[in-house]
Design brief:
Length: 152
């Protein structure tokens, strides 16, 4: 005589677990999505910081090629804006501070120009709890003036 198997005992014998797979998916998929979002947010912030740093360096180099402090400020602002635009970084607000005090140093003495670029980068499109809607990114760069070039 063979024992009769009910549908429930057949499922248990085959290793079926009822709705456990669906419950696992409901719990695990959001965690995987959150982890992927954190990685993407970190990537975007790192790339944006690099773009701001490169803009500051390019602006400082452009400022040191100028003959006067006024030209240096204008050139630095233009190059920083162009560099940020080329990198594809969209800033909600941007500021470029140029320290041209090195232009007042006597020819023959070491002098430099310092440029600080600030950019508020939007992050509202990222779905990461606790991440603010934007982040202030700031970078500074210093470039030496030619010691023996006339300054005005």
């Amino acid at each position: 005589m063979t024992p009769t198997m009910t549908p429930r005992s057949r499922a248990a014998r085959r290793g079926e677990r009822g709705g456990a797979n669906a419950i696992e998916a409901v719990l695990i998929v959001p965690l995987i999505m959150m982890f992927a979002s954190l990685i993407w947010a970190g990537y975007r912030i790192t790339v944006a910081e690099d773009a701001v740093s490169q803009a500051a360096g390019a602006a400082a180099r452009a400022a040191t090629m100028s003959r006067t402090a006024g030209e240096a400020r204008g050139d630095a602002r233009d190059v920083a804006a162009s560099s940020l635009s080329t990198s594809g970084l969209e800033c909600t607000s941007t500021s470029v501070d140029v320290d041209t005090s090195g232009f007042s140093v006597a020819v023959g003495a070491p002098a430099s120009v310092r440029v600080t670029v600030s950019c508020r980068a939007p992050l509202a499109d990222l779905v990461v709890p606790g991440l603010s809607e934007s982040r202030l990114l700031q970078a500074s760069a210093t470039s030496p003036l030619d010691r023996f070039r006339t300054r005005r």
